[in-house]
């Protein structure tokens, strides 16, 4: 079959098309918020984002699985070797691994900073080692590996608008937006992560609000200021979103809509968490479909990008 990428018609073989179809199926089944956002992209960019997600999901699944740490490390290093093959152009179209085939095709068609996927593997290795984080600076390093890098990779697919003001900082803003999404995930999943023996929030913050005992019940630790902790982290995430949103005016309309939709879903999750902090201890906070649809329409309208352009022009800040 043929398709158009950046105004050029290109041929796609049946094995490559099948590989992308596999990645799109993985994305649709396992990443509802992500899949919702990338629906707004043109077909070829949607396929590319699905390939990135499928590879990233494979890495995450190794880290989150039931294997012993040594086996996890071995499998992560094998995945890094596969990434090396992709980087070297050594994956054939008839390779038996559809994720490798799709990612290799994406890397040929888009300027992906593939080192970002090495960073993702490094971040998951931190999980395997059971790393904890004393300060926000420590946690930020982890978040840049597992989420900021994905933001930069996504920017390789989206591209930027020629002549957009401040475009030289686009990668920085994409990275920061990834941090905002990851911190929102961490807040949403505190109970689930605790059940898996993981604590991501900085130890300094936990001690400040009397939460060092952890989150193993549907109620806050006795004597803690759990709401204060959540509101503190929500403010931090909002500041990251505000900075990362400066990326939007640098993207074309559909790429900007995709980013606005995904970020908008997570910002609304933050709103819900802020209103009822203990909800994250009782279960997973999520948005209903009609609210996600509203966020998507808002993104397609370009409202968020125009709002940021006006505010930046008026104040010099997003």
Describe it:
There is one protein chain. By secondary structure, the chain is an all-alpha fold. Helix content is 68%, strand content 3%. It has 15 helices and two strands. It has a two-stranded antiparallel sheet. A hairpin with a 2-residue loop joins strand 1 and strand 2. It is globular.
Features:
single chain, 318 residues, mainly alpha, two-stranded antiparallel ribbon, 15 helices
Number of helices: 15
Strand content: under 5%
Strand order of the largest sheet: 1-2
Query: Which series of helices and strands comes N to C?
Result: EEHHHHHHHHHHHHHHH
Number of strands: 2
Secondary structure: elements and pairs:
Elements: E1 2-5, E2 8-11, H1 14-30, H2 32-38, H3 43-64, H4 69-87, H5 98-109, H6 115-128, H7 136-158, H8 170-188, H9 190-195, H10 203-208, H11 226-244, H12 253-275, H13 279-282, H14 289-301, H15 303-315
Antiparallel strand pairs: 1-2
Please outline what is shown here.
This protein has 318 residues and is an all-alpha fold. It has 15 helices and two strands.
